[in-house]
Design goal:
The structure is a homodimer of 589-residue chains. Chain A is α+β, with helices and mostly antiparallel strands. Chain A is built from 18 helices and eleven strands. In chain A, the strands form three sheets. The first copy, chain A, has a five-stranded antiparallel β-sheet. A three-stranded mixed β-sheet of chain A has the order 7-6-11. A three-stranded antiparallel β-sheet of chain A has the order 8-9-10. Chains A and B meet through helix 12, helix 13, helix 14 and helix 18 of A and helix 12, helix 13, helix 14 and helix 17 of B. Chains A, B: Keywords: Cytoplasmic vesicle, Membrane, Protein transport, SH3 domain, Transport. Chains A, B: InterPro entries: AH/BAR_dom_sf, PX_dom, PX_dom_sf, SH3-like_dom_sf, SH3_domain, Snx9_fam, SNX9_PX, SNX9_SH3.
Chain lengths: 589, 589
């Protein structure tokens, strides 16, 4: 059955680029959904076939090839529901609302949990009155303005668009088999790419309510085990002896579609094998989706940070993206659960094309995803009292919300400081420098003897202030940049907590309703006991995750503040030294 | 014969202050011109008598008691014209135009000499877009806005108004005899105060064209001799072995008119006698007028700098005025001709009331004023060729104009920098400091063990940035202030050069016209020779003055740049040390 789509926005094809001009409201027939890079191949009513931006169309909501329920491998995010009576879902509908709200209220993920009206909004960025004066040295300037692609659709919130074009035909490497991969999966009707699309169109689809886990009759027989130990700080994940790490480097430009589209391939070298593997951005994105599906209910998986990164020049953009991909990979490597997962290991250490292909297919068929990840968690301690579970949850919610505010405040003042340091401030030092030099020039025309010492000194002082202007303008890249990057990363990470905490909170609410459900015979008394036990497990997972977060946070902030202050000290000392040198040239005889 | 005056602007008397309400266009009879402090006592047509601001009225232009010509002591600025045929003046009328232009075109004293259209204007101050945001720590902010007195007349360019009120009746000290003094002089019809008024109303009156000197039949038999030697740098004044200096200190508030008006008295201690004398601002002003009358044609006498100084608080105002009076006195002390003059010595070293009174009267009757000061100048070298005289003059004109531009540029950028350093910049550092501290506060709520080291360090870093904010805000008072003061002083000094150079230029023009004057029998061939010789003397004086200026300039700029850079070095080093301290508190274990 042919998949149809509605055109949401007008799109004019670029000549010679194999694109298809479409009009808003037009109906298209999808001919190939596996183009990648934000493109879909479609045919219009006149029979013309060409590429259309994925975000410009809306696939028909009732995806015909999507299986109804119950069969394996069809809906990975729903997981192994087993013989659960799905009518129970109705009873949970009100309780699971927060999770849905979170997902749909994308602009303010904190709105469900918090009453603080000032929180969570990015309005500080937009209200900055100097916003338009930003110089071209400010990588943050594009943040509030959304994606800069010229022909981005007005409502395309979850933008798949990217500077990195994907290939239609593979140009070598493992991309060819990958395309085959997609074709194979399309036959199954639930492959990665279409899944991503359905995620985009039906927000929250994969974030099923925790009832799936809380009430499933028997837990999946997964070989995966995620033990939680009691550490000094409380529940902790199992940490490996040597921490996984990797280096993202050596971005290389490739092209495909007969040179029409180009892409960047990065080299990733893990410290375990020390053997580099190559990945394009779309593979990072694939990994992100897998991790989100698999761990998202228990572990905040930060988005790939690059969607909004732009650079005025391609090199700048590539460098920035690589730096942020490195940051993302480092964070993932540091996570004991994520780094130890099969899909993450596959990404870092696949041996060859076949290995990658097999692993990829396997990962996409993984059933222990969504809330079912909790079924693999094995706390060593005894079950927690539901009241304690709730208190912990509230505490984490408050903390992450407050930290989100704090981080955003730093980003706001940092952004303003960046603009001042790269804009008006160096201009002013330059003008001071010029004024000294101009006065010096005047003095040289005095015709008075013994003028040279002063004019030389005054010129040197003027040049010093011009140098200071440059130091001031360049400094943010040396220190503020890292402070901003770290806080930006934390902003992204903290933005995942409402979802993670939301799943937890929904679980707590379910347990609270257990008595009512028992009374109405929706669940058995044994189900209620099981639910309480499982919510305790969820709480251990959340606590382990929070402790992981805190430990990383303390390290990260110590590190970035050290770096920031170290560079600031150097900066001020350099200026002082330059001025001391300038001072020494003046003399009052 | 009673002196009449027209009221220029409406003025409403302040109750109980002995003032007289007057209307624009009203005719008043002056009953006492010697009130001082910018006040004049007058009677209206209804017979009411009271004080009226001097600048709100215009004295009748034909001052009836003013002697026609030729008599001694009557017109000090005209000097001893002797038996000069005054009809010669007519012949000079066109040539003396520049001098008149200069005086009347007060807003742009450079307009006569220069073609650069950007020069000489203060528009930079006014066009500053941030001008309205100035904080209260900015002593420059009032500069472009003119005198802040609330009821200043709209056209009162030469404002005598002052925060320091003068007494009607002396409250002790030498002020009583001073009033008597004025009364005595009024009888003579040409005393200092009325002279000042006439100067205000007839700009350029005392700056008679150089023909008075160039053509007078015999030079005044003044005991004063101002030799000019040939130094290494060219013609130089005769410098004393020890340089005169004085300290202006210890401002004391007094009051008079039954407490209605108050004044500040300063203590001035010269290094020669080491014996303090007291003077009020009006005495400085009297001295300034004497020096301007006497030396203004040859030596730029900078205005008392205080007219436009304001402070938000009286203390700030008094401190600033004292600092600038000190600067003015120091400059006068450093000038070999000024400091050695009888009137200046009187000001600094009068022994008692009687001494002051006698000296004052004598100074006011001094006939060697205006261009006649050149008659006392005795160059040791041979006469200069008129071409060389003209070249020198042009050079000085160009230089002083160019330096005026350079100085104004520094004042403009300095002013902007001042505003940034006292306004937005410290606010930003404060916000950075607050953001760090806020994040630290959030971190303390984590409930995670081992948080304290980071939160303490982060709080300390935040406080450090708040301290930096304060350092930044206070710094301009420590360095930029002096750079601005020096340049402001030079701006004032340079503003006098057009007049001084103007007299010289007019002299040169006269000499150029000499042949024509001889041909039309306006002057004799001998007169022409005399004129050339006297212009040469004028040139020696101008060169000596320029060399004096250059020498002082080199010293002043070296000194102020040393001070500025020294404080800047300290500033940056202090910040670096504070940040190093903050840095040391972070740890990555």
């Amino acid at each position: 059955m042919a998949l149809k789509a509605q055109v949401l926005y007008d799109f004019t094809a670029e000549a010679g680029n194999n694109e298809l001009t479409v009009k808003e409201g037009e109906t298209l027939t999808i001919t190939n959904q596996n183009i990648g890079g934000g493109w879909i191949e479609a045919r219009n009513s006149r029979g013309d076939v060409g590429l259309v931006p994925e975000d410009y169309i809306e696939l028909n909501k009732a995806i015909p090839s999507f299986p109804a329920s119950g069969t394996t491998a069809a809906t990975p995010s729903v997981g192994n529901v087993g013989n659960l009576d799905l009518s129970v879902f109705d009873a949970f509908a009100p309780a699971s609302a927060p999770t849905q709200n979170q997902a749909s209220n994308g602009n303010d993920p904190w709105s469900v949990w918090n009453t603080d009206p000032s929180g969570g909004s990015n309005s500080n960025w937009a209200s900055n009155p100097e916003g338009t004066q930003t110089g071209n040295t400010d990588p943050w300037s594009s943040v509030p303005h959304g994606h800069p692609q010229a022909y981005q659709g007005p409502g395309a919130e979850d933008d798949e668009w990217d500077d990195e074009w994907d290939d239609m035909k593979s140009s070598g490497g493992y991309t060819e088999s990958e395309t085959g991969d997609g074709g194979a999966m399309q036959r199954g009707g639930a492959h990665a790419t279409s899944m991503k699309i359905s995620l985009n169109k039906f927000p929250g689809f994969s974030k099923s309510g925790p009832e799936l886990y809380l009430l499933c009759k028997q837990l999946a027989k997964s070989k995966e085990k995620l033990p939680i130990y009691m550490g000094e700080v409380g529940p902790v994940w199992s940490y490996p002896e040597t921490q996984l790490d990797c280096v993202v480097a050596d971005p290389k430009k490739g092209s495909k579609m007969y040179g029409l589209k180009s892409y960047i391939e990065y080299q990733i070298t893990p410290n375990t094998t020390n053997r580099p593997v190559n990945h394009r951005y779309k593979h990072f994105d694939w990994l992100y989706e897998r991790l989100l599906d698999k761990f998202g209910s228990a572990i905040p998986i930060p988005s790939l940070p690059d969607k909004q990164v732009t650079g005025r020049f391609e090199e700048e953009f590539i460098k920035m993206r690589m730096e942020r991909l490195q940051g993302w990979m480092t964070r993932m490597c540091r996570h004991p659960v994520v780094s130890n997962s099969e899909v993450f290991q596959l990404f870092l250490t696949y041996k060859d094309e076949k290995d990658w292909k097999t692993g990829k297919r396997k990962a996409e068929k993984d059933e222990t995803v969504g809330v079912m990840i909790f079924s693999t968690i094995e706390p060593e301690s005894s079950d927690l009292d539901p009241t304690e579970v709730e208190q912990k949850c509230e505490q984490f919610s408050r903390f992450t919300k407050a930290m989100d505010d704090g981080v955003k405040e730093i980003l706001t003042v940092g952004h303003e400081h960046w603009k001042r340091c790269t804009g008006p401030l160096p201009k002013e030092y330059q003008r001071i420098g010029k004024a000294f030099q101009n006065l010096s020039s005047v003095f040289t025309t005095s015709g008075y003897q013994g003028e040279a010492t002063l004019t030389d000194a005054l010129t040197a002082a003027g040049k010093t202030y011009e140098e200071i202007a440059q130091l001031v303008a360049e400094q943010p890249r040396k220190d503020l940049h890292f402070l901003m990057e770290t806080n930006n990363e934390y902003k992204g990470l903290l933005g995942c907590f409402p979802d993670t905490i939301g799943v937890h909170k929904a679980g707590i609410d379910k347990v609270k309703e257990a008595d009512k459900l028992v009374a109405t015979s929706k669940i058995t008394p044994q189900d209620k006991v099981t639910m309480a036990k499982r919510v305790s497990t969820m709480s251990y997972a959340l606590q382990a995750e929070m402790n992981h977060f805190h430990s990383n946070r303390i390290y990260d902030y110590n590190r970035v503040m050290q770096l920031y202050l170290e560079e600031q000290v150097k900066f001020y000392e350099t200026i002082a030294a330059k001025l001391r040198q300038a001072h020494s040239q003046f003399t009052t005889m």
